[in-house]
Amino acid sequence: MIVGKVVGSVVATRKNEHLVGSKFLIVEPFKNMEQGSERFVAVDNVGAGIGEIVLVAKGSAARIGCNTESSPVDAAIVGIVDDWIGLE
């Protein structure tokens, strides 16, 4: 899992049928969480907003954890962090 901050959102009016109704957010991982620390897009399943610190599952864990096994999802927000002292 990766911890990062939501820094924006993406709007896609045309998308895969399995993603209809999904909200897409741009996440910037904390520098010590992932090599490169490049921003990426994640499907939001918990109602996160811009500026919040979130937990993100990537790869097949993102699909399985969100009951979207048939969706083309590589990253999913699975939690909102309440206390993140020491993670940055």
UniProtKB/TrEMBL annotation:
CDD domains: EutN_CcmL (cd01614). It is found in: Carboxysome. GO terms for cellular component: carboxysome. Signal peptide: none annotated. Keywords: Bacterial microcompartment, Carboxysome. Coiled coil: none annotated. Pfam families: EutN_CcmL. This is Ethanolamine utilization protein EutN. It comes from the Bacteria. It comes from Mobilisporobacter senegalensis.
